[in-house]
């Protein structure tokens, strides 16, 4: 067995199981490499030359796929939740590959979330040295002062949470005030609130919430609008779309330093219009409506032969009378002239 990738990683990329489940397959003796059963975790194999099998079935690497998902609020960023809460796994059942989220969003945070089976790219996007840009929009209580905005831009000390014992200072961030509505102004929901846009190049636990708390602000609502320059524009909450080949190639070139061509799977209609699985009726209605529009011919494309054959000609003001209308009048005149000629001949004979 040659140097290469860890066996459990090859199994996971083959779409058979997660890393943890792959380790269980190995220890149970269900995995073989080049015909020999392997039970040692961490065994390295070359996926291009070594034959890896699980229960006698050949393991082949899955095609790399990349999706952008607009995570709704109230959804856990895991494929399955032991507590039974809604998870993103409910939304990715039909994508045709085993994908996992790149990073996470809090339960009450919505927005752009990248899903892929490309482990190398996912690790690079999450590595602190890559400084991947993540842009958020936050609704905070009260009117934000210029001093508070400046403190957020320069970095603030975060209070320790969980097992942390010391404070941490955040890196400088890009912070802009989008709009502000003092108390008594605007709508009832907007009065006394401010909308801020954050662009961070680091990822800490509940970072924006903690940054705002450090300067005396309370976050009422938070959404991530872009990740690594890719926005969820055009996607409603609960929808996902496959990245274009250009988007995926740009990510790999920027964060992995490879300029390879990413094979793009044919996009399915349901991937671009995936609706919230908790609203099946809305999804069916939308589907029927789109089929009706697709099957209905456009006005310019409708056949015109029937319309022409059924239309009646419109006579113009300078048109001459048609023959059918004038024929009876000419016959009466000709008959009257014959009668007049006979009468005149009789009168001549008498004289």
Tags for this model:
four-stranded antiparallel beta sheet; 351 residues; Structural Genomics Hypothetical 15.5 Kd Protein In mrcA-pckA Intergenic Region, Chain A; nine-stranded mixed beta sheet; alpha+beta; flat
Explained architecture:
This protein is an alpha+beta fold and 351 residues long. The protein folds into 2 domains: 5-58, Roll (Structural Genomics Hypothetical 15.5 Kd Protein In mrcA-pckA Intergenic Region, Chain A); 66-278, 2-Layer Sandwich (Pseudouridine synthase), CATH 3.30.2350.10. The chain is 30% helix and 20% strand. It has helices spanning 7-13, 19-27, 119-126, 146-154, 207-214, 245-256, 269-272, 280-295, 305-310, 323-350; strands at residues 5-6, 31-33, 36-37, 44-45, 52-54, 57-58, 66-71, 100-101, 110-116, 134-141, 157-158, 168-169, 174-181, 193-200, 219-227, 230-231, 240-242. Strands 7, 8, 9, 10, 13, 14, 15, 16 and 17 form a 9-stranded mixed β-sheet that branches. The chain has a 4-stranded antiparallel β-sheet with strand order 3-2-5-6. The chain has a two-stranded antiparallel ribbon with strand order 1-4. Helix 1 crosses helix 2 and helix 3 packs across helix 6 (245-256). The longest helix is centred in the last third of the chain and has 28 residues, at 323-350.
SS element count, helices:
10
Largest sheet: 9 strands, mixed
Looking at the overall shape, the CATH architecture of the largest domain is: 2-Layer Sandwich
Remind me, CATH topology of the largest domain?
Pseudouridine synthase
Say which CATH homologous superfamily of the largest domain is assigned: Pseudouridine synthase
As a percent range, the share of helical residues equals 25-40%
Number of strands: 17
Distance between the termini: 143 Å
- What's the rounded overall pLDDT mean? 79
Spatial shape: flat
Strand content: 15-25%
- The structure class reads alpha+beta
Radius of gyration: 38 Å
Q: Uncertain runs with pLDDT below 50, 5 residues or more?
A: 267-329
In sequence order, what are the helices and strands, one letter per element? EHHEEEEEEEEHEHEEEEHEEEHHHHH
Number of domains: 2
In the CATH scheme, the class of the largest domain would be Alpha Beta
């Amino acid at each position: 067995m040659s140097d290469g990738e860890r066996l459990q990683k090859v199994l996971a990329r083959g779409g058979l199981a997660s890393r943890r489940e792959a380790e269980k397959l190995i220890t149970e003796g269900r995995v073989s490499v080049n015909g020999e059963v392997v039970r040692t975790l961490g065994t390295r194999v070359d996926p291009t030359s070594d034959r890896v099998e699980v229960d006698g079935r050949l393991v082949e690497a899955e095609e790399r796929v990349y999706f952008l998902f607009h995570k709704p609020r109230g959804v856990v960023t895991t494929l399955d939740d032991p507590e039974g809460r809604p998870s993103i796994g409910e939304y990715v059942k039909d994508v045709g590959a085993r994908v996992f989220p790149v990073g996470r969003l809090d339960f009450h945070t919505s927005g752009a979330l990248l899903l892929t089976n490309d482990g190398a790219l996912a690790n690079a996007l999450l590595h602190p040295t890559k400084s991947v840009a993540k842009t958020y929009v936050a609704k905070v209580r009260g009117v934000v002062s210029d001093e508070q905005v400046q403190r957020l831009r320069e970095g603030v000390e975060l209070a320790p949470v969980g097992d942390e014992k010391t404070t941490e200072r955040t890196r400088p961030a890009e912070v802009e005030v989008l709009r502000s509505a003092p108390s008594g102004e605007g709508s009832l929901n907007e009065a006394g609130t401010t909308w801020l846009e954050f662009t961070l190049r680091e990822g800490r636990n509940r970072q924006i919430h903690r940054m705002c708390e450090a300067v005396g602000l309370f976050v009422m609502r938070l959404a991530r609008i872009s990740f690594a320059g890719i926005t969820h524009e055009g996607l409603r909450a609960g929808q996902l779309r496959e990245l274009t080949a250009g988007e995926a190639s740009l990510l790999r070139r920027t964060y992995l330093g490879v300029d390879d061509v990413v094979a793009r799977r044919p996009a399915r209609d349901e991937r671009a219009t995936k609706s919230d699985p908790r609203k099946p009726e809305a999804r069916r209605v939308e589907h029927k409506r789109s089929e009706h529009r697709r099957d209905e011919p456009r006005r310019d494309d409708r056949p015109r032969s029937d319309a022409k054959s059924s239309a009646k000609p419109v006579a113009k003001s300078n048109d001459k009378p048609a023959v059918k209308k004038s024929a009876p009048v000419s016959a009466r005149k000709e008959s009257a002239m014959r009668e007049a000629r006979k009468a005149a001949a009789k009168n001549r004979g008498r004289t």
